[in-house]
Fold each of these.
Amino acid sequence: MSRDGAPPRARLAVLLSGRGSNFLALQAAIERGDLPARIVLVVSDQAEAPGLKAARELGLRAVALPRRGEPSREAHESKLLSALAEADVEWVCLAGYMRLLSASFVARYPRRMVNIHPSLLPAFPGLHAQAQAVEHGVKVSGCTVHLVDAGVDSGPIIVQRAVPVYDSDSPSELANRILQQEHKAYPEALRRLLAQRWEIVGRRVVFAAEKNL
Ligand code: GAR
């Protein structure tokens, strides 16, 4: 408990590569009081990412850590780990971070690293998930928030939200429909992780009743 009796707020880092709309959805949920957390660091591998600019405008600590210029993936990840440690980060939230993280990096935040992916996993992992869904001809797609493990989009699922796929959909029309659900699913998933007791049983994230926050 903090001094005012409220539960302590979890310290989040958000990693992004582009627009940052999921980051902004998390920040909005925090500001509404829906998420007992604070974003203590925003990191991008793209110096020009609009999400990084948005974070700075909100007065959040925001750093660019481009992969280019680093001699190796290990060197890049080591800088990232230092930035996370310096900000005393407890949870790492991947929000459109388009870079694979090594197994040893993931192991530094066991069950404390979360990703959002624009498909109903395990369908369509990897790049261009919405185009894969349109191409495949599925009638339903959506988004998945999951814990990160050493694989690609393969960790235990926390929350999923579905949307219809129409015959006339282009990948970008489907992406926009899914994105609206992403902005609800990500705060909801983090809230559940922070506010409820949970355990992993097999591949399953099993939640107990919600704590009083
Ligand atoms: C989102 O659709 C997210 O699900 C996707 O990138 C977009 C980022 O948008 N992530 C992946 O495809 C990861 N495999 P945003 O920058 O506006 O949050």
Note: Residues 16, 18-22, 51, 95-96, 116-118, 129, 179, 182 surround glycinamide ribonucleotide (CB under 6 Å).
Amino acid sequence: MKDKVIVTGGCGYIGSHTVITLIHHNYEVVIIDDFSNSSPQILDRIERISGVRPHFEQVDLKSFEATQAVFKTHKDAKAVIHFAAHKAVAESIQNPLMYYQNNLFSLLNVLKAQQENSINHLIFSSSATVYGNPSKMPITEDAPTQRSSSPYGNTKKIAEEILEDFTNSQSEISVISLRYFNPIGAHASGQIGEFPSGIPNNLMPYITQTAAGIREKLMVFGNDYPTKDGTPIRDYIHVVDLAEAHLKALERLLDTSTTSPLEIFNVGTGNGFSVLEMIKAFEAVSGSPLNYEITDRRPGDVPEMFASTTLAKNVLKWEASRNLKDMIQSSWTWEQNLRSELK
Ligand code: UD1
């Protein structure tokens, strides 16, 4: 068994895939989750897929006392991967305080509890949303961050600023912040994947739910953007590739190979696909036409986002290996499995 790692939000979409990758690489995992957007069933599935049941602690990270207690119990952990956060953009606009409280208190409590228990490595879940509406493509990590159009996005930007101040103030804790582009796809087992509560905000689950007959049709938010077919372009990344980026970041921190106390990497493929291209690619995988309609733009959407992958390739020694078809096929398999289970 290698080192012990605390994974907050380890029952969530990206968290659960990362936990499986870590277990496959012999790390001892402690999941902290409050099940606010996941369920205890995920622990059974992780066990079924990986053959190991991770330690589990149900903790609300907004409470420092509770966070400190669990970190003290696991003070032999070498690192924390902090996924736990709310992530629904529309909900964050309706209820900004809930987002600032949850996403920022939890980060502050994790940092403080790490400090008190000398757990000196952290990987933070950031987002390409911190770039706002970038002026240059592909986006390099030194592009300026901008205020986001949503409180959710702003919690990620503020979190990175907190990490910058924190890592500048003392040298004990080193941090890698990973800026995710658009994670989609599911585990090859078909047993875990994205499970949005209510109506999905994001494109891929909306597509698969429409194809599964849960939504009547996909609304394509605008086709008058300055892009090749008028619909916005994004850098979709397979969630298992993303999980592997966390493994690389963890190894880099544990080997003390980092060259600064806060390192930031884009996690994308470097390829951009438009909404219409995504629909076409989905139709090719599912073999059926998708019901969709072009409608008005969604406020806050930017025309084009795709990552420069150079830094991740050269420094983190990571690059995505799964293609768009793998992403879409696994998302579709997962959706179909989920529906037959829920019947
Ligand atoms: C969104 C969030 C971003 C967050 C990310 C991951 C916004 C403005 N941005 O990114 O802050 O980090 O999710 O959760 O919400 N689309 C449709 N119809 C749909 C859904 C989406 O046409 O029903 C289009 C969107 O206009 C966009 C593309 O599909 O062009 C991707 O959308 P989405 O999956 O929501 O991701 P982002 O907007 O890139």
Note: The two ends are 39 Å apart (CA to CA).
Amino acid sequence: MATPFATVNQTLARERAASVQASTRVPYHVAIIMDGNGRWARKRNLPRIAGHKAGTDNLRRILRASVELGIKVLTLYAFSTENWRRPQEEVNGLMGILEMVIERELDELDRNGVQIRHIGRLDRVPQGLQLKIKSAIERTKHNDKLILNVALNYGGRAEIVDAVRAMVAEGLSADYIDEDTISRYLYTCGLPDPDLIIRTSGEYRTSNFLIWQGAYSEYYVTETYWPDFDENELRKAIEHFNKRDRRFGGLSQ
Ligand code: FPP
């Protein structure tokens, strides 16, 4: 009997993933600026919120592929400190989608060993969503397959302000403050800096994302809008990352 088409496809996908892993270094920490939801929707004459929904549906395949590839930390830019400037309707819609996605995906994420974390300022986030985030963090805190770091109401400058405030509040003497100290006071304390930062939709900006941690990250920009950024696009980004010569300011080996 012929092998069903879906099975062939799944086998090919598994083999492709295995070959990427065998021949390439998989970045430990990947961070993504998920851009282009609005333009994806406009191209289809849909409201912007439909783009955010499609972008959210895309998370599932990127998370699965990340676990499969062996990525250990995935940081996603879900909502920036500047995104509050968007129309109230869009902000509310996004907050609703975030709440829905936690409800919908939490069981599977937990089953697959994903540890959920949050970076950013939770205070301005609606109460209901705050509670869901806190309970997802608590429920998954012992998982160790992949750390999913959700940047929500996140801004790189705000993060540095918060770090400086905490250091001052704790009375740290200037003599003790060096780069490692600052790293320890950032929201990402304890996590390695991102190896690879991906930005979808063709914009060449950091948009206040991981501005301290990204000092030596490799950047990869693709024209593809976030809802269309699938597992093959992720593999392509990793293949590009592998061609980079990371010198961290030094010389090639
Ligand atoms: C940028 O597209 C995208 C966002 C501001 C929101 C991204 C959020 C999600 C995909 C929701 C789920 C996320 C998590 C981690 C649960 P844009 O609206 O700026 O697109 P445009 O530049 O084409 O207008």
Note: Confidence is low (pLDDT under 50) at residues 1-21.
